[in-house]
């Protein structure tokens, strides 16, 4: 293996779901790469039906903790990111995206029209309300995975947090009526030296069993 494959492999073994963070803060330059890993996440059609909310306010984080199985990562970690998606995917969302394509790539709107129709058929008209939410949530998990993998490479600890009450998050963080709703969260920072989980063996089915060939 080259040094980069070795270091990525080591990073993936090094990372674990951190239960106990210490109070060290992620440096600004490192955080900037992590922030960009969120906005650079690929999504189906490229539609980016999301907003990632970094909760900095300690009082808000304290309010979220009891609605997060009382997990200490919520208040202790350097950063807490809440992953939200559009509550519904509308034609306006598709138009906003096609306008961006037009601007960024200098493509006239009529050239993008077939693609716009494809997105309208696939996501806006082709899915009911539940289907749209499920589709949007799947996109969020791509961002979560990318964030955690990038963090590992940068030697930043993370804990994905599904043990939260999304409706309470929406209430406390003021998302109600904004067109966005919470699905999952992720705490990022530095493991406490006495977090026993750091020493635990990885429990994974063998790669040859889960990655197969035909
Ligand atoms: C989507 C998702 C949600 C999770 N939610 C929690 C959580 O709320 N609290 C927690 O302590 N760990 C949570 N975990 C951590 C998993 O339990 C952990 O990743 C898994 O057991 C594998 O262990 P490892 O990440 O340490 O290798 C979550 C992981 C994922 C991917």
Q: In words, what does this structure look like?
A:
By secondary structure, the chain is α+β, with helices and mostly antiparallel strands. The protein has one domain (14-89, 127-210): 3-Layer(aba) Sandwich (NADH Oxidase). The chain contains 9 helices and 4 strands, in the order H-H-E-H-H-E-H-H-H-E-H-E-H. The chain has helices at residues 3-14, 28-39, 58-64, 73-76, 91-105, 109-124, 129-153, 166-172, 207-210, and strands spanning 50-54, 79-86, 157-161, 180-189. It has a 4-stranded antiparallel beta sheet with strand order 1-2-4-3, sandwiched between helices. The mean pLDDT is 97. The structure holds flavin mononucleotide. The site of flavin mononucleotide has 11 residues, from strand 3.
Number of helices: 9
Fraction in helix? 40-55%
Instruction: Provide the list of bound ligands, each named once.
Output: flavin mononucleotide
At CATH level 2, the architecture is 3-Layer(aba) Sandwich
Number of domains: 1
User: Strand portion, in percent?
Assistant: 5-15%
Lateral arrangement of strands in the main beta sheet: 1-2-4-3
> How would the global form be characterised?
globular
Briefly note the structural class of the backbone: alpha+beta
Q: Give the SSE order as H and E letters.
A: HHEHHEHHHEHEH
Mean pLDDT: 97
Q: How far apart, in Å, are the first and last alpha carbons?
A: 25 Å
CATH topology: NADH Oxidase
Using DSSP, what is the number of strands?
A: 4
- Identify low-pLDDT runs: none
Per CATH, the superfamily is NADH Oxidase
CA gyration radius, whole angstroms = 19 Å
What composes the largest sheet?
4 strands, antiparallel
> So what's the CATH class?
Alpha Beta
